[in-house]
Amino acid sequence: MASPKILSDTNSFLELLQKRFERNSSHFEGIEWNKIENRLLQSPEKLNCIFQLEQTGGEPSLLEYDSKKDICTFCDFAAESPVERRSLCYDDEALESRKKFKPAGSAKAKAEEMGAELISEQEYLKLQGIQAVDIKTSSWINTPGEMRKLGGALFGDNRFGRIFFYHNGAESYYAGRGFRCVVRV
């Protein structure tokens, strides 16, 4: 992945996020964009994290707003797992365990570099309910610790009109598997 760019034009980026929000606004009844925009402006470091998702092909947009906790969750809405985030194993432990043909890095570490985290199973299902994604690719999913201790990791995709979660060895990597992130503001 290229070195991170710093958000220099906040207004243009906020306009882009607003257009995406409006495109999916039927999923966010009662939520006004100005409330979301104010949250973003109060957290410039989080806005920059969301910008990193954009810079790596994620096409971030609002996934959900928790009014009780006043938390906005943004995630990658790109139709397919972002190209710049593919061919990575699950985490650094898996990366270190590979003796030959090591990938360029790990999904968890790259997400952390952007100030984000891997999407959870529940968030992935919510995303798929808003927009079908990963029809040709797949995405690493934040994996429960018990499964990870056994060497496995989760990934998801959308095939035959259904959402599937699978497991694989965490050290595996494929040209068609990347990762999706979430950022909470």
Structural overview:
- This protein has 185 residues and is of the alpha+beta class.
- It folds into two domains: 67 residues, no CATH class; 102 residues, Mannose-Binding Protein A, subunit A (Mannose-Binding Protein A, Chain A).
- The protein is built from seven helices and eight strands.
- β1 and β2 form a beta hairpin.
- The longest helix has 14 residues.
Précis, in short:
This protein is α+β, with helices and mostly antiparallel strands and 185 residues long. 35% of the residues lie in helices and 23% in strands. The chain has helices at residues 10-23, 33-42, 44-55, 92-97, 107-113, 121-130, 145-149, and strands at residues 60-66, 71-76, 117-118, 138-141, 152-159, 162-169, 177-179, 181-184.
Q: What structural keywords apply?
A:
about 180 residues, alpha+beta, Mannose-Binding Protein A, Chain A, 8 strands, about 25% strand
Question: What is the fold's blueprint, element by element?
Answer:
Elements: H1 10-23, H2 33-42, H3 44-55, E1 60-66, E2 71-76, H4 92-97, H5 107-113, E3 117-118, H6 121-130, E4 138-141, H7 145-149, E5 152-159, E6 162-169, E7 177-179, E8 181-184
Parallel strand pairs: 4-7
Antiparallel strand pairs: 1-2, 2-8, 3-8, 4-5, 5-6
